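In this supplementary section we document a worked example of the pipeline. Step one takes a protein sequence of length 262 as its only input; no multiple sequence alignment statistics are reported here. Step two produces a three-dimensional model, which step three serialises into structure tokens for compact storage. The input and output of this example are shown verbatim.
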Amino acid sequence: MPEVEITLTLLGLMFAAGLAAGWIDAVVGGGGLVQLPALLLGMPQAAPVQVLATNKIASIAGTSVAAATYYRRVRPDLRTALPLAAAAFLGSLGGAQVAALIPKDAFTPIIVVALLVVGAYTLFKPDLGSVQVLRFQGRGHLGVAMLAGVLIGAYDGALGPGTGSFLVFALVGLLGYDFLQASAKAKMANWATNAAALCLFVPMGAVVWKVGLAMAAGNLVGGYLGARTAVARGGGFVRLVFVLVVGGFLLRLGGEMVLDLL
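The serialised model returned by step three reads:
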């Protein structure tokens, strides 16, 4: 692995990026919109796997504290949350294993289309996620939750940006949870996908530990503050942040596509 030059300035900037990313991620997912670009800019000499591994160290700190805060204050149903997290863990392991076989230039158009659909559906259905009306019962409910967990977990293992947002949307749009309950369950599943990826990255020696721990400290604080903000402000606030984060993803990825075409 390439050596990464570490300075106090770099560690301070990574802490700040982790703080912002942790807050966004705890509210609705999508903290990678801040965190991954910050790592790419701060560690230009690092290999891609080092960037991904270091990002996961930071992310799991934030998702840990956010999941714990949501659990204490929202009390999500563990009969759904735990199987969802287990399925996401297995999906992430599988996605990480096959990531190298998938052409990376195919991902951005797929993500942009998915985000357009997700964002438009949420924006033009103002009542979506405002109240909880579950669409399935019993085994059907659990089956849809686990299928969503496997598919989104595989995506996170293979690529990653927007995983938290996709989890929230699946729980709201497919299963009928309100945004606050969906965010609570999504945090537990997102923690599992991060843990699965680290099961592969840590033994490889891919984590840049000093940078990762500095960003993790910021992510932990941001995750705690974001979860408390979401619980205090309610589902309407989470929905608003969800639309803004999805819009930010579209601007960033759409801009990349345009630049690639020029």
